[in-house]
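tool_call predict_complex ligand=fructose -6-phosphate
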Amino acid sequence: MEIVILPTPAEVGRAAAAKIAHLVARRPEAVLGVATGSSPLAIYAELAARRAAGLDLSRVSAFALDEYVGLPTSHPESYASVIRSTVTEPLGLDPERVHVPDGLAPDIEAACARYEDAIAAAGGVDLQILGIGANGHIGFNEPTSSFRSRTRIKTLAPRTREDNARFFASLDEVPTHCITQGLGTILDARELVLVAQGENKAAAIAAAVEGPVSSMVPGSVLQWHRTATVILDEAAASRLQLADYYRYTFRNKPDFQRWD
Ligand code: F6R
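tool_result ok
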């Protein structure tokens, strides 16, 4: 796992966007896994700026990590809406190539299976963007999620509902269920890029990066991936024991491995 510590949240976004732009330059039809929430917003803003400067993302496909169950797609906080307004439109993606799990499907299990099939039909995810919850979740794989899980319905942990209540008028409006790609689905992506900013992520980051691999900290499953990069601001990195080593490693990175 590569750990990159940068001074500010904006630099975290710029670095992750540089990695994605590097991929798209090599592979214009790249398949991205896209997260919602606040963590990746700086990435999308930087990619939109790069698009204005000539980066062509029109052949890129995208698969969202998750979606609330039962929220109309017209609701501004449905991930269908959020992905449209923060990813598809600003980045100039073809809406036909952007996929979000169907949280309104009458048969949720069949919808989850179709989502897995669609990812496979697209050739799999080249690069999965991830945030991390304060309780260590990635996607909405809450603590004790199976490492081999696939796209499925999950009950949101009370803490996740409380954390996400900031996007809704009240806690009661936050759905209790979601569809999320599983940890096994996420691990199948060819590359993982997790971004985190702020002190309130420091404990989850320390546990995921330096703690034991445990389903109690779903983000720790990144330790099993061959190509995972964790890009942090100083606050999110503040509880890492080996922070100086990660800084030293990044400073001394061989040129052929650079993407920034
Ligand atoms: C969202 C997702 C979640 C978030 C996590 C952090 O699609 O999969 O795992 O990445 O809850 O959320 P923020 O970035 O809002 O702190």
